[in-house]
Amino acid sequence: VPASAPSCGRKPVLLVSRLYQPSNLRDVAQDSRLPGEMSCKSQRLMQQAGLIHPSSPGCYYYLPATIRSMEKLVRVIDQEMQGIGGQKLDMPSLCSADLWKTSERWDLMGKELFRLKDRHGADYCLGPTHEEAVTTLVAHQATLSYRQLPLLLYQITRKFRDEPKPKFGLLRGREFYMKDMYSFDVSEEAAHQTYESVCQAYTRLFTRLGLRCVQVQADTGNIGGKLSHEFQLPADIGEDRLLVCGSCSFSANVETMSSDQSNCPQCETGKLVESKGIEVGHTFYLGKKYSHIFKATFSNAQNKPAVAEMGCYGLGVTRILAAAVEVMSTEEGIRWPGLIAPYQVCVLPPKKGSKVDEATLLAEELVQALGETLPQLRGEVVLDDRTQMTIGKRLKDASKLGYPYVIVVGQGALEETPRFEVICQQTGETVFLSRDGLLDLL
Ligand code: ATP
Ligand code: MG
Ligand code: MG
Ligand code: MG
User: Fold this and answer.
1) Nearest residue CA, atom 31 of ligand 1?
2) pTM above the 0.90 mark?
3) Complex ipTM > 0.85
4) How many Å separate Cα 94 from the centre of its chain?
5) Helix, strand, coil % (nearest 5) of the chain?
6) Aminoacyl-transfer RNA synthetases class-II family profile domain: from which residue to which, for each copy (predicted)?
7) How does pLDDT run across 365-422, given as a tens digit for each residue?
8) 62, 113, 332, 424 - which has most CB atoms within 10 Å?
9) Is 55 exposed, middle or buried (0-12, 13-18, 19+ CB in 10 A)?
10) Which phi and psi angles does 326 have, rounded to 5°?
C-alpha cells in the first residue's frame, strides 16, 4: 500500500496514517542487550519516532524517515565532494584478504575485522575502510598521467567493524555508512593542498547543516600516515576528549598528547580547556604508505613513473545523522538541521466530529498548494489525517519527529481572513499567519 492515498480526485497526498514509522520505545527499555549506559538521547528518540529499529548489537533497520534524511545528507555531501573535484564510485564490501595481507593490516586490525571464507576456503573480510582496495584499483591503470592528478575518488557505502562495544544507536554501529574519499597527487605539496581543500569542504558541510564542529589535530591510528585531523561535534556523550587553547587556534585530541598538559604547546601561555566530542569526520595525509606497497604510480612530466602521494578522508554518514539529533534535540523530541529533516512540513486538520469538515478539506487543499507553489516543498508536506486523535495528541507526535514546520488548520483558517497557526519547531515559536504569510515563511 503506498504511503499516499488519492484525495478529492487530485494528486495523492502523503498521509501520516500510512507512513511506516513503528515506534519501538519499549525495545529501548526492555532490550536486554542494551544496559542503560549503552543507550543515549538520539537512540531513544530515533526508536521512539520510528526512525530506526534494533536488529543485533550495533546493527539497525534504517526505517523510511531515516532513509529520507540520509538521502538528503548524501546529496549535500555529494555536492561538497564533487565541488572539490571528487568522483563517486562504489567498491566491493567483500574484500579479498590478499590485499589486507599485503598491507599487513590483516593482522593489525585484529578482532575489529569481520572475516569470512568463501566456498573455496579463500579468506575475505567485510570492508571497514578501503585504502587497499582503492590503491590497487589506481595501480591497475597503466597510463595514469600527471595531468590527471589530483585524482579524488570517493564512495558512500556500508562499512563493517566488529566494535568491542557497539552502543549509542547509530553513533557506534558494527555496520554503518561512511563516506570515504581517497586522493592521489603528484607531490607532497600538491597533496597538502588537496588535504586542505577537503578540510575546507568538511567545514562548509557542517556549516551548511548548522552544526558547530571543531577541527582538532588527531592521531593517525592504524591507517598510518603523517598528518591528521578530526572533525568533532561538541557533546557530553562524546567519547573523545579534546583540548582547546583559550588564547590561540590550537586544538587537539588528547590522544595526540604525550602527557596531559595544561599549557598550550603552540603559544605556550594559553590554558588548555578540556571538552568532549563526537568524531564525525577524519582526514589523513598518507604520503606514499599505500601507493608504495601497491605500486600506484603515474607518469610524471619527464614521462618517468613516480609513486603517487595519497590522502584519505572519512565522514561518518549515519553517525552525523545521530549526532545531529543528539546535539539539536530536546529530551522530548527530535530537532533536525533543516536541510536533512525527513519531511519539512506537517499539516494538522482538526479532530473529527466538530463542525470542521470544511477545515479538513482546506488542510488537504493546503498540502496540495504548498507542493505546487513552492517547488522545494514537493513531496515534503505530510497531512496528519489521524483525525480521530485530538490536535494536542498529534502535535505531540509531530514534536517527537521534528518537522521544521507544523501548520494547524483550525477554526481560524475558516474565517473571512484565514489565519493559520504555524509552529516553528527549531525555535519553538508559534505564529499566526495569513495564507500569503505562510507561503512567505516557507
Ligand atoms: P572511533 O574513534 O569513533 O572508533 P574511528 O577513528 O575508528 O572512529 P575512522 O577510521 O576515522 O573511525 O573512520 C572515519 C569516520 O567513520 C569516523 O570519523 C566516524 O565518523 C565514522 N565511524 C567510525 N566508526 C564508526 C562506527 N562504529 N559507527 C558509526 N560511524 C563510525
Ligand atoms: Mg574506531
Ligand atoms: Mg577515533
Ligand atoms: Mg578516526
Assistant:
1) 316
2) yes
3) yes
4) 23
5) 35, 30, 35
6) 71-337
7) 999 999 899 999 999 999 999 999 999 999 999 999 999 999 999 888 888 888 999 9
8) 113
9) exposed
10) -60, -45
